[in-house]
Amino acid sequence: MTVDVRDIDRSGKTLILMGGWTAEAEVSRNSAAACLKSALKIGWDAECLEVTRHLAADLIAAKPARVFNALHGQMGEDGNVQGLLNLMEIPYTHSGLLASAIAMDKPATKNALRHLGIRFPDDLDFTINDDDIHVDHDGPVVIKPRNDGSSIGVVITSSADEIPSYSTWPEGTDLMAEPMIPGRELTVAVLEGEPLTVTEITQGNAFYDYQAKYETGGSQHQLPADIPDDIFDQVMLWSSLAHRGLGCRGVSRSDFRWNDRSGEVFMLEINTQPGMTATSLVPEQAAYLGTSMDELVDQLLEVAQCD
């Protein structure tokens, strides 16, 4: 899966989009810094651009030949930036508008992929009365924004009676509720439609939260995961089906919970803009299969395109 660096046209300016004004801006900056280092090392004329609401004007002024999309979360991951780049005819990395918009909306992802045989946690009905959230469910509950990433805003409670007030989240947050799936955390990166391997994530927190994802030593990654062959094959297949089913491009990462007592596996979500930091899972899986971070960034830039 290595890239022949001699056969790629790296002419023209490459802009690496980063930051923005969402809760995931700092993660994006960290991803962009790592990608910039690799892009420069391998010969791209690259620089980072901090994204503001004047992005269109900044792109016109910069005249990039291509864009590496290192944005995370709303605006950069939900189809908005992809649509702008399509209109401006600037090739960009990662998925296009439609795949990005669907993958960012977790209920929409479920609706789009269930027909492929992929199993997701059920959606739980809930009501919000004044500032109180009421969920009709016995047992642990997960409450989370329907369109944020990096585990931002995710709350797990041991019962529906312990759900915090709605004002815990930023005003206007669109929430969803699911039963908490017990078991082990698995993830699979998919590069150009091909699943790489399965990583099991272990950490000391109640779930794989923001700190576990991005703080040094916040989690431990075992790859390949020491799990039964049928579970390994199942999450590899589901990851590939999800990537192709949504029409993703470049790289994606699908996350799962495996209940090792019941044997049930559930997909939690698919990420079209997975992290590319020093502790991120996608570069780690690629390196395990012999593709360095430099080669990974190179390959993503090589296939940059508009819808």
Blueprint of the fold:
Blueprint: E1 13-19, H1 25-42, E2 45-51, H2 55-62, E3 66-69, H3 80-88, H4 97-104, H5 106-113, E4 126-129, E5 132-135, E6 141-145, E7 155-157, E8 175-179, E9 184-191, E10 194-202, H6 210-214, E11 220-222, H7 229-245, E12 251-258, E13 265-271, H8 281-288, H9 293-302
Parallel strand pairs: 1-2, 1-3
Antiparallel strand pairs: 4-5, 6-7, 6-8, 9-10, 9-12, 10-11, 12-13
Helix pairs in contact: 1-9
Can I get a quick summary?
This protein has helices spanning 25-42, 55-62, 80-88, 97-104, 106-113, 210-214, 229-245, 281-288, 293-302; strands at residues 13-19, 45-51, 66-69, 126-129, 132-135, 141-145, 155-157, 175-179, 184-191, 194-202, 220-222, 251-258, 265-271. By secondary structure, it is of the alpha+beta class. α1 packs across α9.
Characteristics of this structure?
single chain; 307 residues; alpha+beta; Rossmann fold; D-amino Acid Aminotransferase, Chain A, domain 1; 3 domains; five-stranded antiparallel sheet; three-stranded parallel sheet; 9 helices; 13 strands; 30% helix; 24% strand; disordered N terminus
Round the mean pLDDT to the nearest integer and report it. 91
- The stretches of 5 or more residues where confidence is low (pLDDT under 50) are 1-6
Q: Proportion of β residues?
A: 15-25%
The CATH architecture of the largest domain: 2-Layer Sandwich
User: How many domain regions?
Assistant: 3
How many DSSP H or I helices?
A: 9
Classify the helix fraction into a percent range.
Answer: 25-40%
